[in-house]
Design a protein that fits this description.
The chain is of the alpha/beta class. Among the domains are: about 180 residues, Lyase, Ornithine Decarboxylase, Chain A, domain 1; about 90 residues, Methane Monooxygenase Hydroxylase, Chain G, domain 1 (Up-down Bundle), CATH 1.20.58; about 45 residues. It is about 40% helix and about 15% strand. α21 packs antiparallel against α22. The two termini are about 35 Å apart.
Length: about 650
């Protein structure tokens, strides 16, 4: 990709296409006339919010980079879309029961996120799902006595006791039995109290999921009861006269169901089991199809199983409703309340991670020099190779020039190691090599070959810039490092200018894995991202999209980089820029991060103070200088764990 300083004619539509925004944006994100990424938080409305304007407003509030921006109206819109899709499918099919959504808080447990989901879901009776003791303690006060709370995951007797307490209070809390021993423990507690517990069961289906999380389903899945275990449970309930207490059947195919046919197969299987148990006399009310409503991360419908889905929200709802209805009609059983546990599809879009570029490493950075009258022979040879590169036009000549440049660089390195080439000559040889590479690559790209040679790919890889950005892959997009999850990444401004640099984004950590290695784009997934040349003295912001699901809660503390700051944004027609910032939450400070690994400010300050005082007494530094050093050290404790993006300039 050639690099020029001229701003070429470039449109917002071209930018949107380049970064595949239509594929992953779901109608929420676009590029405006200013060349900025903007948000349409209200479906069906022309109101837009300029993200760089939000960044500026957040900085006025004292926020620093990197920064999470939560567009709360997007979160609310996703909740409405899900419920409305099921309502439409139920209305069109004539399904005789209703839909009941629950939000699995493991996807994003932040209190404000959960509150927003519950508030937006109130007209639809949206409930919650939890999967641990801590999540249960958090969720119980939030659901009241009307909303459904499903309790998945491994449950000890203390958790089961909390659930029985909640049922005694009239709360709609159902323990989902994941293994038979949980049922046995539940019945022991119930017998001790003299109560009849309400419960649900997760079923191990023969249908397995697809994509990365396929092991969430099938007989080898970690959770759920096998069919023989379910029959043991049913027989126990029958012997106790409690056939009305098993209220829900549940299955789960994984976090991201990529294929709608897999979902249909699983729904049909669970509905057949439901029908059999209804005929047996069990008064099951709910059928829970679990999570897995997928999100396209930019690869489109033809993408990999981990990044794309082959269906839209409407088709998902239709698949569930019609499959259950068909079997219930054939088996002559009542149509149950339909439940789903969608989390990723609700939260992914509302959160944008903003990171500034701190600098760029270009392997072909020129070294200015004039060739001496009698340069080192290898340098002279490489200078002749560069001239040949500038005059060569056909493929074979260009490839020969590139091979000659490679040989020259290898020879220069060997001569340096043997002591026959000085460091200045080595710098000249290296600069000539990269200049030759630039010339050869530009000429190869100009040929526009249908099948580019391997050397062209090598040159493109070698001439890819590394943009150093102020964030940690391990904290903010850990799924990219851990499981290769692709996230949309793009500049947030300057999109009225064609981005002509090939780049990879790397983070602050001292780890070679601290980089973004895959990027969705117009032609599929790429190992490089089109970016703009950095302008001295001007900030350059990148946005990571669809990070609202899992990333913030799964984040690692590699190099002790902590939680980033965040702002919660609401749309408003009456405010400048069509938005207001409802809440700011500062990032984790250095002292808070240190405390997590047992370093405490008081102890560290004392040790540093003793060290400085000893150096003053020894005459190593003067008292005034010693106190300045100590004060600078102590002030760092209250700062964030990330870099200060201010760049010092020479007077």
């Amino acid at each position: 990709m050639a690099d020029t300083d001229a701003v070429s004619a470039w449109s917002a539509q071209q930018a949107e296409s380049l970064y595949a925004m239509e594929t992953w944006g779901d109608g929420f994100f676009h590029v405006n006339e200013a060349g900025h990424v903007a948000v349409r938080p209200r479906p069906g409305s022309d109101l837009t919010i300029d993200i760089p304007e939000v960044i500026a407003a957040a900085q006025e509030e004292g926020m620093t980079m990197p920064l999470i921006i939560r567009f709360q109206d997007v979160l609310r819109a996703r909740v409405r879309r899900l419920n409305e899709a099921f309502a439409q499918a139920i209305a069109e099919s004539g399904y005789s029961n209703r839909y009941q959504g629950v939000y699995p808080i493991k996807v994003n447990q932040l209190h404000e996120v959960v509150d927003e989901v519950l508030d937006a879901g109130e007209p639809f009776g949206m409930g919650l799902e939890c999967g641990s003791k801590t999540e249960l303690v958090a969720a119980l006060p939030l659901v009241g006595d009307q909303r459904l709370l499903l309790c998945n995951g491994v449950k000890d007797h203390t958790m089961l006791a909390l659930m029985l307490n909640a049922q005694s209070l009239g709360q709609q809390v159902l323990p989902v039995i994941e293994k038979f021993s949980e049922f046995e423990q539940l019945m022991v507690l119930a017998d001790q109290r003299g109560v009849a517990p309400r419960l649900a069961v997760r079923v191990k289906l023969s249908t397995r999921g697809s994509g990365r999380w396929f092991e969430s389903g099938g007989y080898r899945s970690k959770f759920g009861l096998t069919i023989p275990e379910i029959m043991r449970l049913v027989q126990d309930l029958e012997s106790r006269g409690l056939t009305d207490r098993l209220e829900l059947l549940h299955f789960h195919l994984g976090s991201q169901i990529s294929n709608i046919q897999t979902l249909r197969s699983a729904v049909k299987e669970i509905t057949q089991i439901y029908a059999d148990l209804r005929h047996r006399g069990l008064d099951i009310r709910y059928l829970d199809v679990g999570g897995g409503l997928g999100v396209n991360y930019g690869a489109g419908y033809a993408g990999t199983e981990d990044t794309a889905v082959n269906y839209a929200l409407t088709e998902y709802a239709n698949a569930v409703v019609y499959a259950v209805q068909e079997i219930c009609a054939a088996r002559e059983v009542p149509e149950p309340v339909l439940v789903s546990e969608s989390g990723r599809a609700l939260t992914a879009h509302h959160s944008v991670l903003v990171v500034p570029a701190l600098g760029v490493h270009r392997p072909d950075t020129p070294f200015e020099f004039e060739l001496a009258d009698e340069p080192a022979p290898v340098v002279a040879a490489m200078a002749r190779t560069l001239e040949e590169a500038r005059s060569s036009e056909d493929l074979q000549a260009l490839l020969e020039v590139f091979h000659d440049a490679q040989d020259g660089r290898t020879e220069a390195d060997q001569l340096m190691r043997l002591g026959y080439l000085d460091v200045e000559s080595l710098a000249q040889a290296d600069s000539l090599y990269w200049s030759t590479c630039r010339e050869v690559l530009a000429s190869l790209q100009a040929l526009a070959l249908d099948s580019p040679p391997l050397e062209q790919t090598q040159l493109e890889d070698q001439l890819t810039d590394m943009y150093l950005c102020d964030f940690s892959v391990f904290h903010s997009i850990i799924d990219h490092w851990a499981i290769g999850q692709i996230f949309p990444v793009m500049p947030l401004h300057r999109l009225d200018e064609e981005p002509k640099r090939r780049a990879q984004v790397v983070d602050l950590t001292c780890d070679s894995d601290g980089k973004v290695a895959q990027y969705p784009g117009a032609s599929g997934t790429s190992e490089w991202l089109p970016l703009h040349r950095l302008n001295a003295g001007e900030p350059y912001y990148l946005g990571f999209f669809l990070v609202g699901a899992y990333q913030e809660i799964l984040g690692d503390s590699h190099n002790l980089f902590g939680r980033v700051g965040e702002v919660h944004v609401y749309a408003s027609d009456d405010e400048p820029g069509n938005f207001f910032i409802e809440k700011v939450i500062g990032g984790l400070s250095v002292q808070d991060m240190l405390a997590q690994v047992q370093y405490f400010p008081n102890e560290l300050n004392k040790r540093m103070s003793d060290l400085v005082k000893a150096k003053i007494e020894a005459g190593v530094v003067k008292p005034n200088e010693g106190m300045r050093i100590l004060n600078q050290y102590t002030r760092r404790f209250e700062e964030t764990t990330y870099c200060d993006i201010k760049v010092l300039r020479r007077d």
